[in-house]
Amino acid sequence: MRCNIGSKLRGGHHNGRRSGAALWISLGLLACPVVASAEPDLAVINGVVLTMDPGRPSASAILVEDGLITHVGDTADARALVGPDTRVIDAGGRTIVPGFIDVHMHPRAPFDEMGPYGRLDLTPEAGVNTREDLFDKLRRKIAVTPPGRLIVGSRYQDDLIGGHPTAAELDAIAPDHPVILVHSSGHRRSVNTLALQAAGITDDTPNPPGGAIDRDASGRATGIILESVPGFQPLYDALPQPTEADTLDAFRNEFRMFMSHGIVAIGDAGASPDKLAIYRTLLQGGLPVRINFMASSSHLDWLIANRTRSEWQVPGLTLNTVKVFHGNSLSGRTAWLYEPYAHDPDYFGIPPERSQDDINALIRRIHDAGLQAAVHSNGDREIDMTLNAIDPAQAANPRPDPRHRIEHGSVTTPAILQRMVRTGVALAPHSYMLNHGAKMEDFGENRWNDMEPNRSALELGIPVGGNSDHSVSPPFVMQRIESLVTRRARSNGRVYGPDQRLTVEQALGTWTVGSAYLQFEEDIAGLIRVGTRGGLVVLSQDPRSIDPEDLETIRVDYTVIGGTVAYQRGRGDLPDHYSW
User: Fold this and answer.
1) What is the 3-state secondary structure of 256-305?
2) Fewer CB within 10 Å, N- or C-terminus of the chain?
3) Which of 272, 300, 324, 297 is nearest to 428 (CA)?
4) pTM above threshold 0.85
């Protein structure tokens, strides 16, 4: 059984004028009758169920058959329908929520750091909290890497390690290896002299469109690269390439990690047909996590030509969205702003590579192809340019519900949010103040309540989807929930933008029903209701009952996808029953 709620919701929200609460309540007004079969496949009983369905906000039991929820109600009623072959999970009073949907992330193959394919993990989670931590890892990698081969590290945090490493510092440690260290934002790199030379970058190399080469007071290149600067790709191309089997195994580990945090569906933001082929193999083998493949705009021609071909009609795979870069980074402090950064009165960020005419033409082409545009824009000047492109595309070719999105939309104003309401766009904001809050100092305190505008967007009725932007921040959903609720930076204890803090219920809503809406899946996912897909998460504690500063300590005990237990805490081998 399935409830057909999508058409009403889509038609009702297109004008963008509902509050966030009203949007979710509208789902409840379309509630399906509670119907159960004689013998379900799965029963989850004795739980505290937060359904995200205002028509029935709470329950204690759920039944699932053939991948769909058939009963949401009381444990006593559910017990009466349990058969001898039904798997029963006794939640023991634990909290149950819909499966989490991460609408914007970048899945990757996590190879062994010290192996031939591995990149150094420079995150705090991997033990890099100081400059010496980073340099120690780099030395260990050099010891097992042949001279002349590129060494790559990812996601160092400059605010923790005391700024960006310079070429001079890296040369002292790695005189015989080119080195590229990618910042936590993904929008800055620190490289050594061998890497600069390989890229053909000298002190006299001009800044390319959309990028910048940092220079010291005497005009010498420091080794710090901002945004897109060409020339480094041949270094990457020369690296040893993993086998297909190794790559598939690495992605299997990535998706197992996602499920351990309650993630049942993702959006891969800006990927290639080669990566899509990996997903097809995994999904055909039984991968239970649904994938919204957001093709990079550089592959738009391929997507238009291939999205309806039979070989890409794979259950669990959606090809409807195009990821567009039009703007730069919040945590990398390269977003393009109307007013200067607080730390430098002459610095406004880096302008996007595309002109207004170029972004207009690209959005119009995506729109006319019947696709959804998901546009990366962080700075207020970038967001205005994006809205300037979406408005005329819709006016020239009215579509009933294009549901175009702005990814991140980090530095806003009330006027920009009102434009988003009128334009009818959705928003996938960051939720990483916990990890990166100290980086907001450079934007100035006067901006903090307009940054990562989750609460303002919900109050204005702008649909908001939860996301990690993994690996910019970890896909640890309860950590992301804590960041949304507290907006407190772990590194210095400071709250950045208290006006944008969400309640626990609102934060959970963005990661469930809100995310489902952004991916056109509100009729099958994001809430616990009869007829929706059986995606459930059993949490170790009720997130409403603990100190918000402790939300990230909550663990996922079970992840259920389509009525099948895809993850159980303490049973790390459980997903192996899938052939994927």
Assistant:
1) HHHHHCCEEEEEEEEECHHHHHHHHHHHHCCCCCEEEEEEEHHHHHHHHH
2) N
3) 324
4) yes
Phi, psi for 386 (deg, rounded to 5): -65, -45
Residue 85's closest CA among 563, 559, 575? 563
- The reported pLDDT for the residue numbered 572 is 63
Instruction: Give residue 383's pLDDT.
Output: 98
CA distance 516 to 264: 11
Q: Could you give the 3-state DSSP secondary structure of residue 501?
A: coil
Closest-CA residue to 512 (of 557, 549, 543): 543
The alpha-helical segments, DSSP class H, found in 426-562 are 433-436, 454-459, 477-486, 504-509, 515-518
Q: Which amino acid is at 524?
A: I
Helix (H), strand (E) at residue 160: helix 158-161
CA nearest 557: which of 578, 536, 576? 536
- Sorted by sequence, the CB contacts under 8 Å of residue 34 that are 6+ apart come out as 71, 72, 73, 530
Give residue 32's pLDDT.
Answer: 44
Nearest residue to 133 via CA among 181, 171, 187:
181
- Classify 59 as helix, strand or coil: strand
Provide the β-strand partners of residue 211: 227
Residue in the structure block whose two tokens are 């806003």: 412
Residue 152 reports pLDDT greater than 80: yes
Helix (H) or strand (E) holding 385: helix 380-396
